[in-house]
Request: fold
Amino acid sequence: MSTILIASGLLAFIGTVFFTGVYRTAAIKQGIIDTPDHRSSHTQPTPTGGGVVAVITILALWLVGHFVGLLTTKETIALVMPGALIALVGFLDDRKPLAKRWRFGAQIISAITVIALLYPLPALPIWGEFALNLNHWPLPFVALAMVWLINLYNFMDGIDGLAGSEAVTVLGAVAIILALAGNTNLAILLALTAVPMLGFLVWNWPPAKIFMGDACSTFLGLSFGTLALITSKDAQITPWVWVIMLSAFWVDATYTLVVRMVTGQDWRSPHRTHLYQKLALKKKDHYRVTLLLMTMNGAVCYSLIETLPDDCQFNLLTLASISLILLITCWYLKAGIPTQFNSER
Reply:
């Protein structure tokens, strides 16, 4: 099994690097270009949609994972089938914008499919012995949370290397935590899943030569939600580990959306007022913001490793602390408030 996994990982990395380059050449010829405007965080026209190569590679790795026994049949279908659907819709949207109802419909169908295949869902520990049973009235909220994760990950793919680095560091961190908790199968699966994203970063690292596109960003959002449910089933880690590791993304996206809604802005229109975009504008550099995210995720992973993730109280206190720091930073840098809007107020 180890030989198959090592060979699969090497092929996944090399294949992603090579075929992303092939896709980039084709995208330039076919005009699949992201042209910057006043809402963009980049200044040069850049090919987009290159993350679809990583998506295809990850789907193939999950099938290999099932073949060698890392995933059950239901887990494999829950990852591959909805993931392929959401990536296909994103790919089509990258080439020609689709109506919102088609995108949202695909997201709802994907989330419901994941939940149906993984039912019954793991309990969500709250405090001490108390845990929330997700298999009754909370089910619609689980579906909505997955839909929000799909969208927020797409929103956070706005500067060079950020979404790819988040994927690599989160998957790597949870893989380490799972390995230390004794679940080597799922640890290996997550490590393999990170490999194509590492290959994509060869092209997407600042300054990016190609952008990820909706096919990959929405796919990653759904995949994180699905993997959180799968890895929590054996109770060796809780869903809080994923919530904590993804906090930089969901706090920024949620805070910014709420501010835009409360201040009467058109919250559905494109913008560049997320915290990470404010930082990129302030530093005039995507590299340092992406590096800051990776450093933060590394520190969070270390804190979880020190206690191991079965301590629910510690997880919640960690989540509260990180969220508070991020919320204060969002407030201080006026995330969600355009500079022009702020001056007019």
